[in-house]
Write a structure and sequence with these properties.
The chain is mainly α. The chain is built from six helices and no strands.
């Protein structure tokens, strides 16, 4: 992560609201070093600026290729679905862990 991106995130995540980046209006964000490389901010608002990295879309409900192996290799915490009672299985029968965005 670049120093400019780190500074932007640190400013956005500032606990004290009055000191948080953007609390004085969007002009604070536009003047940040991170956004200075874009020059014309209107391209970002119109969504015409091309992203440097676009992660591959999920291909199935179990596709975890966009997650670091550090997390996907850990055992799942809590009870496995096979250990759920019939009642709990019914409650979660339409629950999905992966959210697919329409194209």
């Amino acid at each position: 992560m670049s120093d400019d991106a780190r500074d932007l995130l640190k400013g956005l995540l500032e606990r004290k609201v009055s000191d948080r980046l953007g609390s004085g209006g969007a002009s604070q964000l536009k003047r940040s070093r991170f956004f200075s490389v874009y020059g014309d901010f209107s391209g970002i608002l119109r969504k015409t600026h091309e992203a440097e990295f676009i992660p591959p879309a999920a291909t199935s409900m179990t596709d975890v290729r966009n997650f670091d192996k550090e997390f996907t290799s850990e055992p799942a915490a809590g009870k496995s679905p096979s250990m759920l009672s019939l009642f709990h299985a019914f409650l979660f029968c339409y629950f999905y862990w992966v959210f697919f965005l329409p194209n």
